[in-house]
User: Fold this.
Amino acid sequence: QSALTQPRSVSGSPGQSVTISCTGTSSDVGGYNYVSWYQQHPGKAPKLMIYDVSKRPSGVPDRFSGSKSGNTASLTISGLQAEDEADYYCCSHAGSYTYVFGTGTEVTAL
Amino acid sequence: QVQVVQSGAEVKKPGASVRVSCKASGYTFTRYYMHWVRQAPGQGLEWMGIINPSGGGTTYAQKFQDRVTMTRDTSTSTVYMELSSLRSEDTAMYYCARGEYGLDYWGQGTLVTVSS
Assistant:
């Protein structure tokens, strides 16, 4: 199972919107509506930000949103804030109770 | 409140095995799957496998199929991950995380260092 493909880094000014893509195949991202996104600050455990493509857990700000088209999922941060600077990882169900993570994206607020 | 607490750091020699524990509390242990995810220094997250605490059924990533064993003890609400035939490339932070399609509670991580 190959890792899902994410851009190495994205950046934006505070208040701007940034979007992170997550590209897989029809066997993972494209085949199931089970994509999740995780935020990880240095030295910390990952935190769930989005699940089931577009659902937000309680407590996650609504500036975080998720979507999917074909084999590509996306995470959008609308109104980037300094505290959003972190690494972000997508994850997809890949059938038969297997999962695969993305390569990770570093988000920087300029 | 939900808590997932892992065992402490380990240092192992190449060829040895390591067992990491993950104790859950604050919810019904058998109602949620538990995943194991690892992260090598400076690298991304890597999914290792999943265990169903209710029946003990497991699914492992193909990469670890012949070296990993995940078990659970329902009497103590603890899941275990054992990785054998350790090599230097297995040096990483190992996490357990609760959930099925979204991993909502993560352990603090267990650093496993493989060094001669």
Q: What stands out?
A: The two ends of chain B are 40 Å apart (CA to CA).
